[in-house]
Amino acid sequence: MKPLRIAVVDDEPLARERLSRLLVECDCEVIAELEDTPGLLAWLRGGHRPDALFLDVQMPGGTGLEALAELSDPPPVVFITAFSDHAVRAFEAEAVDYILKPVFKDRLLKAVQRLRAHLRAPASPVDSATVQVPLPGGAGTRIAVKAGSGHLLLDLRKVTHFELEEDVIWVWSGGKRFRGPWESIVEVLEAFPAAGLMRIQRNLLLRPETVVGIRSLPGGRVAVRTAEGLELEVSRTMTPAMKEHLGLG
Question: Which single residue of 4, 112, 121, 220 could bond 51 by disulfide (Cβ 3.0 to 4.6 Å)?
Answer without folding.
Answer: 4
